Amino acid sequence: MQVSCKKTLLVLLTATASWGADSPYFVTYSHHMEEPGSLEISLAHLAGRPQGGNGFLSELMELEYGLKGWWTTELYLSGQGTLRESTLFTGFRWENRFRPLMTEHWINPVLYVEYVDINGADKTLKEIVGHDGVEDQLQPNAETRLERKREIETKLILSSHLKGWNISENLIAEKNLSNKPWEFGYSVGISRPLALAASAKPCAFCRENFLAGVEVYGGLGDRRSFSLRETSHYVAPTLAWLLPGGAKLQVSPGFGLTRSSHGMLLRVSLGYEVNQFGRLFRKLTQ
Fold first, then answer.
1. Contact (CB, 8 A) for 211 and 194
2. Topology adopted by domain 18-277
3. What pTM was estimated for this model as a whole?
């Protein structure tokens, strides 16, 4: 039993990833779903410095698991540190994505629903909705941490693959469970591997291991004022590097397009995917 556990643990630690049709996006979702039984662990960082405020670094730990071929679930734990203020845990998110059509189509829809339980000091900017803007990050942590936010977020994800390109569109509707109106947002991404054909020999710097793209995202107001007025919008080039051994490194500088936006946001993430984690976990516990 002891030998079997050691062998299984060794396999778990050296498991290689199969990122497949994954994309380099930070905000936009494609129709890529986690393989059933596989676990992706990643840590995403966001750095910003709002004009007139203190610089901050937020962190988002992601645990994504493939329950079924058509169902992926994910848990997020978030925190942030603000210069000359404090560092604190800001809450969690529980996300579920459902793909109603399993075969590939010209447009592949995915339904998304997420429960959010965070405080007002959260600065992950995982999406932009309503009238979210740079002023939200100017309030001190001592005040915003006292605000409790329980929200339901839904998305309609539409995604297509065309000659190596991925084109994804997300429509977002978010409702604070207190007496506040629905808020809306959007995100659009387009990406492509730098090479479609795999090299004859494995290598770290092969062009097919790099995915490049661009995202555009922002808010669309709320139910009472559905418009682009006083909303934030960003354009963000993205780059992902699929590293040997199952890791993925992503980076994306985002540039604000309106007065309500941050001037620049820098996102960096490092992820690792463990194939067939469910099967390996069962072996470890036997």
1. yes
2. Porin (2.40.160)
3. 0.89
